[in-house]
Structure formats: structure tokens, C-alpha cells
Design goal:
Elements lengths: L4 E5 L4 E8 L2 E9 L3 H11 L4 E5 L4 H12 L6 E5 L4 H12 L21 H16 L1
Parallel strand pairs: 1-4, 4-5
Antiparallel strand pairs: 1-2, 2-3
Helix pairs in contact: 1-2, 3-4
Length: 136
Amino acid sequence: MDEVVIAVDPGRQKCGIAVAKRDSVLIKQVVETAGLAEVISEFADRFAVKTIVVGDRTSHNAAIKIIKSAVGDGRKLNIELIDEHRSTDEARGRYWLDNPPRGLARLWPVTMRVPPVPVDNYVAVILAERYFAKKR
């Protein structure tokens, strides 16, 4: 059976969440930080997760505390910090691949395009990919 991880792009107000296997993404979404514990608990149970991947930058310590409170002491979970360097830039590019701009906007350079929605969920996917790449 393929390993399933939950990846979290932690933030003060919102977090990106991805549930992923080495070769596929099962879920990706943006949640309010206040609701992170509930979402982590639900996904950890539903997918029998043993590893949670957390980005190592903004608010990671607070996110780890929330994660530990969500899963309790009874479950053995491994929490892995993953380097987030330039992941937001990569996530913006990935967003535009999934949602190509239309009209004149497609003529703008990618560096000038700003996605109309948060891309924290894309960052979480990238963190999961980095985790699996590191394990090879």
C-alpha cells in the first residue's frame, strides 16, 4: 500500500492542506487556521496517515502544536519539517497551469500574474512532493 501523508502549509490566518501519495493528490484545500485541528484529525483517521509534513517557515511551531492536539498522544504520528523555500512562487506557477488565464491576461508574463485565490493548497502539494522526493 502506498504511503499517504498530510502536508500542511502553515499560516497565521489560513493553512494549505494536501492529502497525497507519492504519485497522486487525493485532497487539496485551504482552511482557516482555527479549524486546522478538526481537518487534520478527520483526514488522519480517514486515510490512516502516519506522517504529517509541515512547512518550516511562518507559524510552523503553532501548527505543530495544533496538529499534536488534534491527533492526541494515542496515535503514533511522525511530523516532518520540509523546506518551504520558494514554494509560494512555484505554487503560483502551478495554479496557472491548472487554471490558464483567458483573454488578454494570458499575454501577461507569469511573474506579473496574481492568482485570484489563495494558493496555500498548492504549496501543501509541493511540500508533499518534496517529502516524497527526499525519501527516494
